[in-house]
Amino acid sequence: MAPHGALGTAPRHSSSDSFIQEPGMWRAVANVLLRTKVPRGRTCCLPPAHKSRTLFIGPTWHCAAQGSHAAGPLIMNPGILKVEALDAGHLVRVEWEDGSESRYPCVWLRDNCQCPHCFLHSARARKLLFEDLDVNIVVKEVTLADRKKISIMWPDEHASEYEAEWLKKRCFSEEARAEMRETLFLPEHQYWGSDLQLPKMPFEEIIYNDESAYRWLCTLKKVGIVILTGAAARQGELIKLGHRIGFLRLTFYGPTWQVQDKAAANNVAYTTGKLCFHTDYPVLQHPPGVQFLHCIKQTATGGETEVVDGFHACNKLKQQNPQAYQILSSTAVDYTDVGRDYCDFAVQCKQRIIDVDSRGQAVRINYNNATRDTVFDIPAEKVRPFYAALKEFNDLLNSAELKFTHKLKPGDILTFDNWRVLHGRQSYPSGSEVTRHLEGAYADWDVVMSRLRLLRKRVLKRD
User: Fold this and answer.
1) What is the pLDDT of residue 76?
2) CA 236, CA 251: separation in Å to the nearest integer?
């Protein structure tokens, strides 16, 4: 579960804050970003506000680089200049009116025929059975019907047509594929440390305004953390947020859960003690991707929330101690959680502290010291090196340079990337009555990204 508490008092709004929260201005800025060419690795954002102010960082939209074989930016109405078969009919080359070219393997073209026999348009799903696909297929004839469509006749006399815009979006050039990845998954991250300019948006706008909801999810994906302000200080607001994105993630602690001091607590979060930096639920094979913490009541003393950008910490660890990074990204750590809440449970899982992709880049942090099991399924001689590596990573997380502290106030909802942002809580005094109460919930990234794509289509009028 989660250490809960910690982002706090909202600063007074400046003129830049008003600009940030104006839906019409957001549409204008988004349209500019969509037309702007941004060098890879750079960020394109609104002018920075004063360091203590809330800042919205918009999504970066890259355009494909120019080159002899680049597909170029994904323009809405591309025109085809020429089409021909190459490689003994195994490849189709398309020359575009903008001077770029694309090459499409014929097996892929046949696999993705869009005719009603091969594709169910009402479900946007392939009907063609893979066992019916000839992986060595070649074209019999390819023609340019007009500048917006190509036609292919296959050896079995099956005919396929492909729209120019559809083909352009699916170009196999490195630049076009990178652009499609960015469009579909928004993989860019803006890293931060103790100087985080905390993004903040009104809860009611998120619920009722599509542009605000889109802005929230884009910021959540890129920065990893956003506070929603002005929610009612009562249980149930997270249910509304769940409905806004689709649905919440049900776990053994229920669809939502109450973080407060409890007798015989079944989770360390349900105490008044300090909670060290962690991600929630690494004991699950697929930990929740997004976490929501709604402050309903806040203690006068203590209870501050601490957060840290885990991906930023991973990058620093990889630079200063590659061996420690290799150990944490390759060693399977045992996690356990046993008890009763929504129902009784006995969960076991093995996770690497740092999950990496094929490039060795961190894609998920699985670190919760409270639920790390006493069982450790590695050879004895590897135990001390593992602890040393984890100690160095933990020290980085707690460094003054990286951690950010904030105290939530009633009505604030902290939303953050549970795969990236580790959170903790400072201790607070216990009493005869509940002095601090947060309601928590989870959502999966699949659900969140689905809503983001639907909102983008609605707000920006773009698939």
Assistant:
1) 59
2) 17
Dist CA 179 CA 220 (whole Å)? 20
Phi–psi pair at 290, nearest 5 degrees? -130, 140
How many angstroms separate the CA atoms of 18 and 3, rounded?
32
CB 376 within 8 A of CB 334: yes
What angle do the packed helices 210-223 and 445-460 form, to 10 degrees? 130
- Exposed/middle/buried for 430, CB within 10 Å: 0-12, 13-18, 19+? middle
Amino acid type, 36: T
| pLDDT for the residue numbered 75 | 53
- pTM metric for this prediction: 0.83
Collapse the DSSP code of 325 into the 3-class scheme (helix H, G, I; strand E, B; otherwise coil) and give the result: helix
**Within 13 Å of residue 82, how many CA atoms lie on the same side as its CB?**
8
Q: What pLDDT does 461 receive?
A: 87
Instruction: State how far the Cα of 403 lies from the Cα of 308, in Å rounded to an integer.
Output: 5
Tokens, residue 235: 């249980």
Helix-strand-coil split of the chain, %, nearest 5: 30, 25, 45
Q: How far is CA 254 from the centre of its chain?
A: 23
Number of Cβ within 10 Å of residue 223's Cβ equals 24
- Pair 78, 165: CB distance under 8 Å: yes
- pLDDT tens for each residue of 63-122: 222 233 333 444 557 899 999 999 999 999 999 999 999 999 999 999 999 999 999 999
For the chain, residues with pLDDT lower than 50 are: 1-74
